[in-house]
Amino acid sequence: MLGVNQDAYSEVNLDYIKQQHIHLSRRAAGGGAVYVDHGNLTYAFVDNDDGTDYLNFKKYATPAINVLHQMGVNAEMTGRNDLTVDGKKFSGMSSLKIGNRFSCGGTLMIDVDLDRAAKALTPPKTKLKSKGVKSVHSRVTNIRQYFLPKYRDITFAGIKELMLKEVFSTDDLTSIPTYKMTASDWQEVEKIASGKFTDPDFIMGTKRDDDFFHGEHFDGLGTIEISFSVNDGIITHARIFGDFNKANGDLRAIEDQITGVPFRKDSLVEAFRISHLSDNIGQISPQQMAELMLDKQFREVN
């Protein structure tokens, strides 16, 4: 499953997943690509935005961390949205805001097929380098091996119960307010799912055909990638990708702003300055964006 702003052609081994009949999908939320099978437990909170909690990953990771500590896993939050144990990642989080409501959740890798995950995912080298690893397999881990003996054979349903009790501070599941989806609710879900989210254009995007592809991982923000072409010293085309969590940003507005601009630092800085970077990507400066395009050290070789 791809994050909304990611490049399918650089993040996934398309030949492998086709051969293995692995389904490719894209969510509307930001963040990075994840391999999801029956060994991966996904959870999400839906909340009102009071101006403080949107993108507050720590708040919504805390219940999961508390439950895992109870189960014997020395879990901790590292970086902007990862949960790790012994330096290895077992959970990534993402968020999506629509109007005054937002979702925030993540995955828990419990019994995931790590070999298939490593072959299916092909993150940019800059992202792996930022984590100090050479491959997906060396970076991630399943967490069942860390469970205390009494939890070693716990089912996913059992973990869900522990999570619910933690979130609602109760030992009585029947005391938790519960809404049961109706047939009509599910029809609405299916209607949404069968529209945009099955559209090949949304899932795959357009294969990039530019002269350059630069990428870098920025602490606290994520990986930003720019595919661009230059002709006679002028930028003729640009596209922005990444696993940053600003899911609703207008990347096209930034791309249009730098297209037609001289490929020089002063011109690029000015173009990025008026592109509302904080609203559309996150906390990144015009100078950093300009250097990302100009400095050859950021070039990704496919």
Automatic annotation (TrEMBL):
Keyword Nucleotide-binding included in the entry's annotation: yes
Database matches in NCBIfam families: lipoyltrans
One GO term describing the cellular component: cytoplasm
Organism: Lentilactobacillus parabuchneri DSM 5707 = NBRC 107865
EC number per UniProt: 6.3.1.20
Keywords: ATP-binding, Ligase, Nucleotide-binding, Transferase
Entry keyword Phosphoprotein: no
Pathway given in the UniProt record: Protein modification; protein lipoylation via exogenous pathway; protein N(6)-(lipoyl)lysine from lipoate: step 2/2; Protein modification; protein lipoylation via exogenous pathway; protein N(6)-(lipoyl)lysine from lipoate: step 1/2
Protein name per UniProt: lipoate--protein ligase
Domain BPL/LPL catalytic: 1-175
InterPro entries: aa-tRNA-synth_II/BPL/LPL, BPL_LPL_catalytic, Lipoate_protein_ligase_C, LipoylTrfase_LipoateP_Ligase
